[in-house]
Specification:
With 422 residues, the chain is of the alpha+beta class. It has twelve helices and 17 strands. Helix content is 40%, strand content 20%.
Length: 422
Amino acid sequence: MHDLRWIRDNPDAFDRGLARRGLRSCAAEVLALDREWRGLETAAQEQQARRNALSREIGAAKARGEATEALLREVAEGREREAANAAEAAELRRQIDASLAGLPNLPEDDVPDGVDESANRLLRTVGEKPRFNHEPQTHEAIGERLGLMDFARAAKLSGARFVVLKGALARLERALAQFMLDIHTREFGYTEIDPPYLVRDETAFGTGNLPMKAEDMFRTTDGLWLIPTAEMPLTNLVADEILDEAALPLRFTAWTPCFRSEAGAAGRDTRGMIRVHQFPKVELVSITRPEDSAAEHERMTECAEAVLQRLGLAYRVVLLSTGDMGFAARKTYDIEVWLPGQNAYREISSCSNCGPFQALRMKARYRPADAKGTRPVHTLNGSALAVGRSLIAILENYQRADGSVAIPEALQPYLGGETVIQ
């Protein structure tokens, strides 16, 4: 959500930010409604003050034994006008809030302008791509050849874009999640959370998933939403709260299944596990002071990178353009892992700084130790990592010519010392 007071003071900057997102200017429209709303609010306050004064006059008139009929009529008429103005003001405020709720976060100054991923900026490439003495296979070919990845039975159970993992691959997926959680909790100071996988409208609204991304989510018959990412419940842990400055930063991590309808992905990645309706992910969320969020963004990205480095996987980090960035983000780093079977880098993590955008929607604030009042916190989130895509990366990068797959050394203790899947 956008701060209406900030828009009043910075209408041109607001419109410039929207233009960088490919949207038309709307500050003038919002501020016209805002002026009308504030006028009605002022009128309601004046009417209430007049009614209070009349009440005192009525009391004095009764004490003097004077007639009060005219004063009582004026009070009744004023109450009707006040109620009408209040209703109109409430409707105007609803319109303002609805308009602002549909607008994405404004990009940081250093975010590259562009309509899509073609404008993303490469920041660094890390690690060496593996070399093979055979034609590298895709993860689905490897998994099916091993007899441990079954798309046909998954389709029988649930339809397209699902997978059944068996035996060693099921254990490998579980080991990856445990490995990631151990790194983030034991070394990087994140608190592990086991959150609900079903959330209410308010929770989805708080992170910016509603109203704009409803079609990308699954909804139950009783109105709850299956989480598309643990960012949603983790960030909302501080909704409607006022935190002490000394408690910040808060850092949360969670392993959860995630559910996405992939409504906008028709025809894309129809084979394999790259884009499925249900997938596991380890998520990171940070709640910080405004002055700390930029440094926290860098730190979070490094935490996600550390997992790939210890798994020995080559990757690159890109800064997303204004046209490729998510709705709630003001700056996003994508981490893309190298997949030999596709001969391409593919996204395995997005780390985003949302600034106060989500906090304003959630009414999440903190009380500065050396100042009066409260301020919105800043929120950040990142995958660290997408577990299914990490499994894909291991299969494709550690494949052998005989169809077996070596297990990265960092994961071997989680798999009883096993060194190969065959």
